[in-house]
Amino acid sequence: PESGPSAAPESAPPAETGAAFRRRRTERPAEETVPGLRDNVLLRETLARLPESPTPQDVMEVARQLMQGHVFLRIKGDAQALIAEGKELPLAAATIGDRRFAVAYSSGAGLAASIKQDGDADTSAMGQPVLVVLRHMLAGTADGLVIDPASAPNRAILPRDLVERLVSAADDELALKTLLAGERTEATQTALADTLTRVRV
């Protein structure tokens, strides 16, 4: 008996053009993991690559990426209402062993993970420049800073002495880090050269 008609071969997907491939490879990660909260993308992505047992070099890489942009603070209650009333903001803290750490978040996802873990939804988020947060931490008695505490292994603990070194060596305006983290244009090289003549490296 004659066999039926053979199925037509599936057409191969069109080849990706060189321009499309380059565009896909250079696309920046999403800036928001929770709508309305703009993540510190470089810090978030560095934390996402941490191994189960980070080495000192891994922690230093997190510290380098931390020193630009902003982080989120978790405030008990309504932060805007507390500020309007002139009240002190009750910042989140974490106890690890016998040490107490200030807490910051790289992203909306990191913040959401903490809320899911402890079930305390009566909190609000406040984005702050990283140097403001680190100096505030050093003005208190915290033993260091923990970033994204509920996101292990994608969390980092920076001891107080490391934070002190980061702040003492930082350019107040974070000008160099801002240029390196931003979009590269024809003017970037000139701006970098100018910045290197007037900031500490």
Outline of this structure?
This protein is of the alpha+beta class. Helix content is 40%, strand content 16%.
Task: Explain what the structure shows.
With about 200 residues, the protein is α+β, with helices and mostly antiparallel strands. Helix content is about 40%, strand content about 15%. It has a four-stranded mixed beta sheet. A hairpin with an 8-residue loop joins strand 5 and strand 6 (about 155-160).
Average pLDDT, to the nearest integer? 79
Task: Give the CA-CA distance, first to last residue.
Answer: 82 Å
Instruction: Please state the CA-atom Rg, rounded to the nearest Å.
Output: 22 Å
The sequence of SSEs as H and E is: HHHEHEEHEHEEHHH
Model regions low in confidence, pLDDT < 50 over at least 5 residues: 1-16, 21-26
The oligomerization state is: single chain
Structural class: alpha+beta
Q: Count the helices. How many?
A: 9
Helix share of residues? 40-55%
Instruction: Please summarize the sheet with the most strands.
Output: 4 strands, mixed
Shape: globular
Widest beta sheet: strand line-up: 2-3-5-6
Care to count the β-strands?
6
Throw out a few tags for this protein:
two-stranded antiparallel sheet, 4-stranded mixed β-sheet, 201 residues, alpha+beta
